[in-house]
Amino acid sequence: MPSSSTASDLTSHLGYWLRYVSNHVSQAFARKVEVHGVTVAEWVLMRQLLDSEALAPSRLAERMGMTRGAISRLADRLIAKSLLVRVADPQDGRAQTLSLTPAGRALVPELAALADANDAEFFDHLTSKERAALLRTLREIVDQRGLGSMPID
């Protein structure tokens, strides 16, 4: 049996620290949006719809890196909360689109402000140069690895 001294220390891994920070940032944000009755995944879907009048569930699935079934489940929850509507596509009666209700459209900027506050809570101690370098590095990793799904949990 190998000695534990041959195994690298857990805290020597960048992945450990990325996950450590990510978990804390994500959990704090989840608590903030939960007060408004939505999950982080629901917020991400709503934010995707803010700049569009309506989108097909397949388009949202593509943008978010999720299955159409997962998008449908999120949409069903948001429809039940009166934050989203599903309507027949005027060009193709068989297809449906999703769009924010007026209440949903009004809520998105409030949730975006919470996201901004959450970022400030965790990252405001960094200089603007450090923040830019961190953002650039993380985006480079995403590009290099071809990561496509949005972080929603």
Descriptive overview:
This protein is mainly α. About 60% of the residues lie in helices and about 5% in strands. The protein is built from six helices and two strands. α3 crosses α4. The protein is globular, with a radius of gyration of 19 Å.
Number of domains: 1
Shape: globular
Strand order of the largest sheet: 1-2
The biggest sheet amounts to: 2 strands, antiparallel
CATH domain fold name: Arc Repressor Mutant, subunit A
Question: Distance between the terminal alpha carbons, to the nearest Å?
Answer: 37 Å
Structural class: mainly alpha
| Percent range of helical residues | 55-70%
Task: Describe the protein's topology.
Elements: H1 14-34, H2 40-50, H3 57-64, H4 68-80, E1 84-88, E2 96-100, H5 102-123, H6 128-145
Antiparallel strand pairs: 1-2
Helix pairs in contact: 1-5, 2-5, 3-4
Brief account:
With 153 residues, this protein is mainly alpha-helical. The protein has six helices and two strands; from the N terminus they run H-H-H-H-E-E-H-H.
